[in-house]
Amino acid sequence: MGKRTPLYEEHLGLEGRMVDFGGWDMPVQYPAGILAEHEAVRQRAGLFDVSHMGEIDLHGERALAFADELVTNDCTQLVENQVLYSPMCYEHGGVVDDLLVYRLEPGHVLLVVNAANTEKDVAWVMGQRAKLFPDVQAEDISAATAEMALQGPKAQEILQKLTPYDLGKIGFFYVAPGIEVAGRKALWVSRTGYTGEDGFEIYVRPEDARHVWQEILKAGAPYGILPCGLGARDSLRFEACLPLYGQELDQEHTPVQSGLKYWVRLEKGHFTGIEALRREQEEGGPKRRLVGLRLTERGIARHGYPILNPAGEEIGVVTSGMQSPTLGEAIALGFVPAAYAQVGTPVAVSVRGKAVAAEVVKKPFYRRSGK
Amino acid sequence: MKTPSELRYTEDHEWLRPEGKSGRMGITDFAQDQLGDVVFVELPEVGRQVRQGEAFGVVESVKSVSDVFAPISGKVVAVNQELVDKPELVNQDPYGQGWIAELEIANDGEVQALLDAGAYGKHQEGGH
Known about the structure:
The complex is a heterodimer of chains A (371) and B (128). Chain A has 371 residues and is α+β, with helices and mostly antiparallel strands. In chain A, the strands form five sheets. Chain A has a six-stranded mixed beta sheet with strand order 10-13-14-9-3-15. Chain A has a six-stranded antiparallel β-barrel with strand order 16-19-18-17-20-21. Chain B contains five helices and nine strands, in the order E-E-E-H-E-E-E-E-E-H-H-E-H-H. Chain B has a six-stranded antiparallel beta sheet with strand order 1-2-3-9-8-5. In chain B, strands 4-6-7 form a three-stranded antiparallel beta sheet. In chain B, strand 1 and strand 2 form a beta hairpin. With 128 residues, chain B is of the alpha+beta class.
């Protein structure tokens, strides 16, 4: 038996199909199915249990400076209650994890990390703290934090029914601490997500999770909200080209190779990994790059399938791939040598031993209108 | 889950509908439910000779890739071309419009040895 979130019983009640995910018992889908859940988020709204995510609290005068040392993006530009996405690197430039950095009240920073990496990340952060910022307190508060993501064009309308706080005041990648949701005091509500749609991530105390979850589904019912599992979470993030650790990101690749150059600020102050990432840039940029692929013949490229050049030689590997529910075509992400990274480059994907023609296309595959 | 009594089944969750010298086959209601939304079907080639238990097609859902195994030995005499554009028929009507291939029956003994609906139902309950 794996670890259970405070919403486990809700998933059983909704007939979620439970699978193991990084040691957690999580719903991969509910009876509506992945395609219906995916569509609900693109068109209306969907609710995800993401309580398995890890939360690390940093306290102290230098909490923000410590966060800035840990991650590649620039935390010093954040104002209070602003949120930032960033990779976090090892000294050699490989990625420990990708995470959200919340700048909360003075002296308080929250890091939200991937479920499957929480233990590793906590150990890494604690080690760096002891070495570099012993005056900052770091605490793993994952067990005391439930989290759900309400995503989709109707997310704000639905959540607004449950809170007196004007949600219009929470900008993209900002957070409102301590606002009331469904009569309970939420820890934080941020306009963030992992689907490519507008929406919120709502952090509550574990004892409030089931009530808030039920109330959101109730308030969303007239809008056609669906509870959504990890399957739709993956297909939605994939279309928006949001990387998944272990597939697009790992310790073997730098964040620049993984297409996250924008989130790597070499011009800011020192951060762990900057020497390696500077060297990479000075040596002419990454030798391998993550590209988007569109299959031009019938077939679906999947994680781990080889990418071939037109001569049939293996040049790379698919990190994620599926039949895009929104676009209706088979698309994929994968690493190739920089020479093959230009949009329009013809390549192929080896699907069960057969070369299926593909071409390099622009990322992201999906971008919501008006963004 | 439906398991029509006139069909024969494999432990790998294929069904066969023997009719004279040949039989249509597909994947069972249980199998399609386990897979979830089917988004792609790779059909075998017509004319191919297959052996019982050989992987001769592929069904892909949003998340997974599953082989389709030949329930009996024989020649593939027809395939369901409709699945090329409508793979969702496998979910919607697994025993009807969602059929995958038609096989010539080479060996009646193989057909007789397949599971009947009762035995297949028990096999499902026993956990896949």
